[in-house]
Amino acid sequence: MNIHVLMLVLNRLIVAVITLLIVSFTVFAATEFLPGDVAQILLGQAATPEAVAGLRTAMHLDDPAILRFIHWLGGLAAGDLGISYANNMPIAQLIGPRFISSLKLAAATALFSVPIALALGITAAILRGSLYDRIVTTITITVISVPEFMVATSAVLFFAVYLKWLPALSFANEVHSFGELLRVFAMPVITLSFVISAQMIRMTRAAVIETLDTPYIEMALLKGAAPARIVLKHALPNALGPIVNAVALSLSYLLGGVIIVETIFNYPGIAKLMVDAVATRDLPLIQSCSMIFCFGYLILITIADIIAILSNPRLR
Amino acid sequence: MAPFALSPKKLGYRFNVVGIVGLTIILLWALAAIFAPLLTPYPIGEIVDYDYFGPMSAKFFMGTDYLGRDIFSRILMGARYTVGISLAAVTIACVTGVALGMSAAVAGGWFDACLSRFLDALNSIPSKLFGLVVVAAVGSSIPVLILTLAVIYTPGAYRFSRALAVNINTMDYVTVARARGEKTGYLIRSEILPNILGPVLADLGLRFVFIVLLLSGLSFLGLGVQPPNADWGALVRENIGGLPFGAAAVIFPSIAIASLTISVNLLIDNLPQKIRDRSA
Prior knowledge:
The complex is a heterodimer. Chain A is mostly helical. In chain A, about 80% of the residues lie in helices and about 0% in strands. Chain B is mainly alpha-helical. Chain B has one domain: MetI-like (MetI-like fold, Orthogonal Bundle), CATH 1.10.3720.10. In chain B, helix 9 (about 185-220) packs parallel to helix 10 (about 230-240). Chain B is elongated, with a radius of gyration of 22 Å. The interface of A and B includes residues 23 and 146 of A.
């Protein structure tokens, strides 16, 4: 790796940090628009003015906005997420178990969908123009152009209502056996997999087709190399960078999908926590959840960009 | 007369069959949105059937909802919210984005660099999350929804039109116009805009689909259009309880959304050659 590539990667990382700062400022500023006095809301209508003033001082609410922003950001960096308005619990405690169950859902979805999507995307690209390719492309475009909740409701209609294989919308917290675990996870994972696979298949297919159109593939073809050899030895190694880039980008769609899927299936994850927090207007909780989401999203798209830089042979 | 009818110019603006199907469905929904109050067979908010989650019947041909209200009437009225809000948002997003994009391409320098950095940062907030935070902070109303959706999709329109305009900006005729001493406003309006209009319109359609999907998603989460009014996403939310037994009340609003978004996609993919090629 030469110095030029290193600079590009470093530049990308700096952009990511700046973006994170702007994002955190946006999240913080959004709460500034909220009408009403936070201290008053916390203490209720019966509170004496002295108590409200005391709490305002304790919470640094009288400081200028920029100081409070820095204070809040420092707390975030140190892992202090603040206290939830709704039930006075430390947010870190609320988020911890929810975060882990969301990660489980995401991991299960990734394990399930990445191999299938890659296989479909690559084969569709190789068999470009065939009936198989057209069927795969039509289905992916259809899935992409309908809302996530419609994928979820269709999955419920198909697997739970017509086939009666899986429970419909209930999410049981007590899981006693491996079989039950599978049944409980099946619907959310199937739905999420559909949503992100569609993106992944499209991007993988495009990446492989772009590689197959290059002069060196034509050269291999003219030399008389076998089709399998052309694909495995010439095309795939060169398409690997764009494919991994596509996978990372598609996984970032998990974040949007997970909000809908956790709500519809009542899955006890962090997105459900956040949607509930929006309903109760629990701002510190919303701030923390959205920072976690933005952070995850930013990590994924930064990784995707860095892989794209590293895999570009012209830069190596 | 016959030979002239097939002249290339006329052929160029003709839609193919798939494009016509897409356009027809879009126009039908547009008409439904405009004339909804005249078309609804039953009053929107009125409970017209004792049976909740009623099946499709001659009287209620899309069934009834969780309170026994007519779904067909509610979908027609919902078209107003879904199509209207999305159209307003996409117009604001594209006008702002394209204007800024062209200005940045023509001006270049610091203006371009700062604007691009800022809008890129805005672009890397997941859209649904942005909607959630704004709605949590300021509450959900139709103007707030329109503005939020517009803000979310402005960076995309900016980036797209800027990339196109940068290419046009280096063309000889722009250089000539600049040498002639034309003002920046003239360059943008008369030299660049006409040459990026085709792709920009196609992009507008795509962005409209994204906005419809996001709006439906937010409404589905209960953060979009508020009861007693309902757009199509909110209709699905209201009736989600009927899903385990496959109620028509969940299925038809979903089909309405899908028919609109898929039609727009079909139309964009099958735009007449002449419109599609209006790029440089």
